[in-house]
Amino acid sequence: MQHGSDMSLKEKLRPYNQAMPDILNYQIVTKTLICIWLFLLGRLFQVLLRSSGRVAVTSGDWKFLFTTWQGILILLLGIGSLFIYVAFDLNSKIVLSRNLVTGQRASMEESIKEGFFSIGKLVNPEGLLVVLYIALLAPILGLGISISATENLYIPTFISSVIESSVLYSALAGLAVIFFLVLGIANLFILHGVVIDGLPIGEASRLSRRLIKANWKDYIKQNVIFIFLITASLAGIAILCLFIPLKLITLLPAGPVSRLLTIIFVSAGTIISVLADLFGIPLYILKMTQLYYSYKQGSEYEFTEVKRDNPISYKKAAIVLLAAMAAGVAVMYVRFDQMFPLETDVKVIAHRAGGNEGRENTLSGLETAWAAGAYGSEIDIQRTKDGYYVVNHDSTFKRVAGDSRKPEEMTLREVKKLSIDGEHVPTYEEMVIASRGRLVLFTELKGNTADKKMADDTVKLVKQYQMEDEVVLISLDYGLIDYIETNYPEMHTGFLTFASFGKTAALNCDYIGLEEESATSDAIDAIHKEGKKVLVWTANEIGSQKHFLCTKADGLITDNVTQAIGLVSELEHRSDLDRMIDKIKTIL
Question: What value does the mean pLDDT take over residues 193-207?
Fold first, then answer.
C-alpha cells in the first residue's frame, strides 16, 4: 500500500467516498432513534406539566424548574437528553469512523449500541461539563462539532445588544470567548479518547491536550485542506447544477417554462444542500478519527480497506429520489403562488415607539413610526410613586434622561421635569391618545410595578378611550397576561418569551412573542393552529428582517423601521427564483 505522501488526491479521498453508504445508513437510523426519543420525551413532559397545572415552561416561568418536583424532573430529563444526543449524534459516529479507519467489521446495531453505552463514562461532573460545552458553547463559538439539536444556537439579540453597548461587557465577553476557544481546541479529541480507547474523562482530556500541543500546526493544515476540498467540491456541484442553469433561466422571458425550470433546479439545489448537511459532520468526524490515530502513532495512519456490503443501492435510491422530486415539482408548479407568495402579510412594529429613527419611548417616536408606515409601535410603561403611568424601558431614567432614579421612586411632576433630547417623558395616556386611529399600541407592562393593579388601571384607560382593538397588552410575565386574558377577555394580550418548551401555543393569550432563534416555521405553525398570532422580536439586521417577512409571522418588532418597510416593498417585486429561495430559507 502506498504511503500518505505518495498517494494521489483521488486515492486519499477514496475512503471517504466509500464511507458514504455507511454514513447515510447510520444517519437514517440514529436520526430515527433521536426522533423516537424526542416524541416520547415530549409526551412525558406534557404529563409532568399538566400535573403541575401548566401547559408550557417559558423564560418567564424558569423558577418552576427549580422549585417543584415536576420542574426538577423535567430539568434532569432535559440534561439527560443532551447525553443521549451526544451518544447518537457523536459517539456512535466516532465508533463508525473507528471501524472505517481501522477496518473493523462490526454491524451497525453493535456500533450504535457501543456508542450509546459509551456515555456511561460521561455520567459524572467532568462529563457533564463536556456535554454542556458540546451542546451549548461549541455552536456559539463555531468550533469543532456540536449536536444537531443545538447546532444553530446563538446569543439572543437582546443579550448581544447589551454586551455591545458596554466596553467593559465587550472586553469580558471577548476574554470569555478566547478562554473557551483555547479550552475547546485543547480538548478536541476528548470524545475519541473516551469512545475509542475507553479512557476516563480526565485521562482523555490529558491525552487530547498532549496530541494537540504536539501536532497543532498539522491539525490546522489538515483542517484547512479538508474543509477546502469539501467546500470546493460542493461549490463545483452548485455552479454546474444550480447557478449556471439558473443564470440561463433568467435570460428566458417570465412564463410557465421559466417557472418550471426554476422549480426543478432550485429543488435539485435544495436536495444537494440537505445531503451536504447530512454528510458534513460525519465526514469531518471520520477525518478527525484518522488524525487521532495518526497523532497517537506519530505518523499518518492509513485507512485499512475492508470489503463491505453496500447497505444502500445507489441506483434504487436515485430512482426513489427522482420520483419524489418529480412529484414535488408537480405540486409546487400547480400551487406556486400559494407556496411562495409574492407579498408579505407580516406587519412592521416599531420598537420603543419609533425604533432607532425616533426618540425612544416618546410622542415624537410615535410620529416617526406613523410617518414611516409602521403598523404599530411597542412601548414600555411603569408606575410612578403617585400612581401615574409613564413610558420608560429601563429600570431607571439614567440612559435616556441622565437621572438614576427609578420611576416608582418619583412623582409624575418629577418625571415631567426630565428631558429626552429636549422632549418630556410621556404618560401612557398621552401615548394612547397620540396613537388612536393611527397605530396599534403594543404596550409592555414593565418593571417592578408590573402587577395586577397596573393591568387593571391600563385596561380601564384603554376602555375609557374605546381602543380595545387598537391596543395589545404584552409582558414577559405570563401570570400577568393570564390574569388580563382571564378577567378581561375583550382585551388583546401577548406573552413575550425568548425560550420555552411544552405546548407554548396553548398559553392563555392572543399573541405569543418569540425571540428570533425560537421563531421557527414549526413554532409559528403550531401557534397559528391554536388560533393565536405570532410576534417576532427584535429583528434589526436586513437578513433577519427579510427572513421573517417571508414567514407566516403576524408581526415583526424592530428598531430599524424604515429598513423593514423598504424590504416589504422590495419583496413585492421578486422573481420566481427569489421567491423560492426566500421561502426555503425559512424552512431549512
Answer: 96
